[in-house]
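Troubleshooting log. The previous structure file for this entry was overwritten by mistake, so regenerating from the original sequence record. Sequence copied from the archived sheet and checked twice against the printout by T.R.
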Amino acid sequence: MGRGIALYYAEAGWNVCAVARNQERLEELACRFPDKILTFSCDVSKADQVRSTFDAILEKFPDPDVLVDNAGKVIGGIMETSPLDVIDEGIDINLKGTMYCTGAVVPQSGSCPTGFGSPASAPEGSRHRCGENTTPIPILRQSS
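Regenerated output below.
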């Protein structure tokens, strides 16, 4: 889903910063619109990686218009029988990752980008099967 969002907005003329763990997929994405898509490799479940990644993004685009935070991991099965490491990974990506990314973009002044998205707001048909990650996260800046 993130790849599609990044391509849609790049095609519409927006500047896009795509964030994902998979460097190969990021490189493929950047080749489609090299003048519009910047890529950053990052595991959003790691606060230090998010901070350094978003520091680099905000240096390039200090006032982003939109953060599309669609990184997510679907935890399959019944919670009571799911291994704790699987539950922890889901919490780290789905909850903490969203908190880290949003916290890195929303300035302390209280102003914020004009739009936000999250895995919870995704239409049912766009969800991925169990264990599949939906990154990259596009960070969008409308071209002037």
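The helical segments are 2-11, 23-32, 47-60, 84-105. Archived copy saved in two places this time.
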